[in-house]
Write a structure and sequence with these properties.
CATH topology: N-utilizing Substance Protein B Homolog, Chain A
CATH architecture: Orthogonal Bundle
Distance between the termini: 35 Å
Number of domains: 1
Number of strands: 2
CATH class: Mainly Alpha
Length: about 130
C-alpha cells in the first residue's frame, strides 16, 4: 500500500512472466511433461513429485472421475500433478490461491481452450475437500 496525501491507496502488483517462482513452476511443469512422455529417470528437480505421483494420480482419479488418467491431456496432467504436489506434499508452502492461479495461468499458456477450466475445477474440488477435512 502506498500513502499519498494522507490517503491510502492500494497498489496492485501485477505478476510477471519473469518472476522467478513462475519460471520455476514452468520449468517443473516442462520436466514433468517430458518425464511423462518418455518415462525416463526423472531429473533431480522433479524426483520428489515423482515419488508422490501415485498418490497424486489417486487424487486426480477421485476428483475427476469422468477422466481416467490415460485420457487426460498430458499438459493438463502435468500441471495438475505439479499443483497437487505443491498443495499437499511440498515442504515450502505457497498460498493455495497462488498455486491455483499459477496452475491456471500455465494451463492457459500451454494447454488447450478447456485446460484452464479443467485444472481450476479439479484443484478447486481438492481444496474444498481438504479444507473440510
Amino acid at each position: 500500500m502506498a500513502k499519498i496525501n494522507d490517503q491510502v491507496s492500494c497498489v496492485k502488483i501485477v505478476k510477471s512472466k519473469l518472476d522467478p517462482r513462475h519460471k520455476k513452476r514452468i520449468h517443473l511443469f516442462q520436466e514433468l511433461f517430458a518425464w511423462e512422455s518418455v518415462k525416463n529417470t526423472p531429473k533431480l528437480a522433479i524426483k520428489d513429485i515423482i515419488i508422490s505421483v501415485n498418490e497424486i494420480d489417486n487424487k486426480i482419479k477421485f476428483f475427476a472421475p469422468k477422466w481416467p488418467i490415460d485420457k487426460i491431456n498430458r499438459v493438463d496432467l502435468s500441471i495438475l500433478r505439479l499443483a497437487i504436489w505443491e498443495i499437499l506434499f511440498s515442504q515450502t508452502k505457497a498460498p493455495i490461491k497462488v498455486i491455483i492461479d499459477e496452475a491456471v495461468e500455465i494451463a492457459k499458456e500451454y494447454g488447450n481452450e478447456s485446460s484452464s477450466s479443467f485444472v481450476n475445477a479439479v484443484l478447486g474440488s481438492i481444496i474444498k475437500q481438504t479444507i473440510n477435512d
